[in-house]
Amino acid sequence: MRQPIRNRLHGATAREWSATASVLNGDDSTWVVAWDGRTIRTWTDYMAAIRRDFQFPRPYDDDDNIDGYMDWMTDLDWLHKVSYVLAIEHFQAFMADDPMGKRRVIQTLAEDILPFWEEEVQQVVIGGEPKSFQIYLVD
Q: Which parts of 1-139 fold into alpha helices (H)?
């Protein structure tokens, strides 16, 4: 029997993330995105980075389109991977110009995206399989 997947937010030091990243380096089954949080200051910056780095197949210009964002983040088939990792280095500086947006990002990831890939995908996608999605908040 397969081990249950536990998707979660991880608090990590730079050293801990570096060790994890070195293990992931060369793992072709995992899509790894690592951001310098100092470069993502607002919700608009976040949406541009998520679209770019998760390679959304069709761009959309409406940064307030949460439904479109959720549709893409709960699909990701085009990446052809079995697991995903998002690391936000310098997390304290991440979205420093938009603290409400930062809370919305973390809440959406923790309450919607991670549970979807951990379990809900089986109920809403025909043939849907749980996938590991780990998020590292690095300071």
A: 14-24, 43-53, 66-73, 99-108, 114-115, 121-124
